[in-house]
Amino acid sequence: MTNFDQVIAQVLGEKVKARMSFKGHLDTYRFCDDVWTFILKDIKFKLDNSQTIEVDKVRIVSCTFALFVLSYQVIDPLKTQC
Prior knowledge:
- It is a single chain.
- The chain is of the alpha+beta class and 82 residues long.
- 28% of the residues lie in helices and 46% in strands.
- It is built from two helices and three strands.
């Protein structure tokens, strides 16, 4: 799985040229065990081709790559408590 994550990140970085922007309301944010979680509501995504997609709720989870790799080897994210 770690190899897949590295390869997909590399391929997406090299091959994908599309851009997207989004706007919404920040409902909740938290920082626990070096992982940021943002929950956004009433989101509007605008794509390169001027297409707009509207959704009710989005969760964005962000962590460092090193922590992401370690989570497959050591950390069980279901047992992490904040």
